[in-house]
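Exercise 7.
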Amino acid sequence: MTPLLLLFLLLSSANLSYALDSISASQPLSGEQKLTSEGGNFALGFFKPGKPNYYYIGIWYNKISKQTPVWVASRDTPITDPATTQLKISADGNLVLSNHSTPTIWSTRVANISSAKTLAVLLDSGNLVLRDASRPNVTLWQSIDHPTHTWLPGGKLGLNKVTGVSQHLTSWKSSEDPSSGIYHLELDANGTSQYYIIWNNSYNYNYWTSGTWNGHIFSLVPEMTANYIYDFQYVSTPTENYFTYSVKSSIMISRFIMDVSGHIQQQTWLPESQEWILFWSQPKDQCGAYSLCGPYGICNQNVQPYCKCVKGFSETSPTNWDLLDRTGGCTRDTQLQCSRNSSDGGAEKDKFYPMLDTGLPDNSKNLRVGSSSDCEQACLNNCSCTAYSYDTTTGCYVWYGELRNLQEQVSSGGGTLFLRLAASEIQSPPKSKKKENVVVAAIGGAAGCLIFLAIVWVLIWRRRRGMAGKSKAVEGGLLAFRYSDLQRATKNFSEKLGGGAFGSVFKGTLPNSTAIAVKKLEGLRQGEKQFRTEVSTIGTVQHVNLVRLHGFCSEGSQKLLVYEYMPKGSLDTHLFHDMSAAAVPDWKTRYQIALGTARGLTYLHEQCRDCIIHCDIKPENILLDSSFVPKVADFGLAKLMGRDFSRVLTTMRGTRGYLAPEWISGVAITAKADVYSYGMMLFEIISGKRNSDQGEELKIGFFPTLAATKLMEGDAVSLLDKRLNGDGDAEEVTRACKVACWCIQDNEDARPSMGQVVQILEGVVEVNMPPMPRALQVLADTPGNIVFYSELTSNSSQAQSATSASSQTKSTSSVSSKD
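Solution. The predicted structure, written as tokens, is:
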């Protein structure tokens, strides 16, 4: 064998060995080498999160484009040279991280290992386990029992009642620094079954709780009742309490993290956009995390970035702030004089800056004084006093030292905080002096006129630039626009994008070149307060498959909504309008549009604080971004419904052809009405035609009738849009047709929920063959006298009789779990 061939084989063998999933005594890991789990889901090795010259040993997802660590071994001990550092099995059988200068940087530290012949194996669940080679079924140590900031499915968060050791999550210090941060999620150390998020390891600052376990859910997490992705389990034994969960779908990538923002978040990887999407987060308010902005930082829920420094202060470390590490907070620009003890008798005393509508910080001290001026003086007389607040009802409160957890623009529970600053930070009002010199007075008058004219010119210039006098943000981060600003942005509403039941939509451009879509609402009779309340609610609803609301305008009878602009327009333009063959969406794109739309509706129905029923699902209300990711538009414009669905919507809404029979029958409208409309739209996504469009090749005027028939004959692929030339996954087409038929069942109890629709389309659960809806059966039985089913919604008596008949039919189960 030649030396060159021998060298090649050795290198190939070395590369192959580190594609394996284990570390043994003879096979350490260092440098750029990594382990890959048997199924390829996870990798382990040295990674660099962004901080210069700092490396860490960690585990990350191996099948997604964005490197996302889930576990870090030496998070508080970074490594500067991975080439000279090894992760290896030590002489005592433990897994250790070491280099020449530090024999033990990190270790599994398992005592009384009977054999030094141990093996570290990376499992496909993301769990790194240490095993005795002679007893491979015995786990000596596992990473999933020592979580860092990520809680993987199958892992425990709990408390060992014997040792008092807690399995908890700790945030990263910053977005690029995995060392231990200041936010923790852990089970109550006092033994109750509730979880707390705490700040700085202090139970004095637990700012969120899950509530106690009631046998099914945590009492303050009602969203668990609407879960369709996860299985939860809370376990209590004499030795430990813990909570664990699993993901129902083996193909779904999901993670639960303690974020650097102080929020716990459930995130799901979305392959279409190659991004993590937020599934669930607590606390609900961005400013709900304690001391999010650090000392002398203030949080505003309605603007981005949320944090800034209060007047007279600047960021202690702008670099850290950019990485979301605000633990250092802000420092004073000018030191306090505290002139009472100053040797400089001429130094001007400190002054107080009023901060209106501010959420007052903790750790105040109540002083018994008689007036606001006495309260101010009491603070001024103490050099440690940094702020005071006075109210005739509650009296005088003062703060010593750092101010934390400040929030501004608090609508309720706020007050006026008087912040102590150096006198030079607060501009004193000019003192009036008598001017007897006529020349000086004339010069002053002329200067005043020039200043006035300059101000007028600046205001006119800013108005022409747009959005100069914008109102302050309201709840939910929405901006209140002036009507004149939106007129300019839309060039007097000259470029119409479309229209619908609630009004017309126009394209516009903000001064910063951001494209927007402005909807002029028509026929609304709400008062100002009610309108703002409903719009505020819409603004808090955010999901990757929902169109984002940026702001609104309410001036007299003019009511407008400002949305993000969707460059690909609405779905109907891609399905029904004439276009080149190359521009027709292929089946893969259509299937992802159907799935994304279902996810957006699931969020509205099952994961919002209140169930939001859309009431007008149709292709015109499904908008597409530049990557054809679908986003549901116009949600929330119909009336909000409570979770118990006890209220009834009595006003006819929606579009004929997509309306469920219950709109006519007068029964309560639930989220199943949206399911029906979604099913009708899904038929159109499959066929590329309006359901009621006649075609010679169909020999029938209503596509759902043909679809139900073809489905029962096992020929679903023939239903595909003819422009696709049969190019579509047969299993997916059949699955979509089954879903559509189940969604349009006459009896709403027989229809699946949108959460079940998502599961079916994802392939998580199997779906049975649906029965033909009664109304479709009527059409199929009378081919010589075709009556479009869409017309049934305009004939009350006919629809009522059909609904009455269907209500006597017992509903059947529409889905069955693969498991």
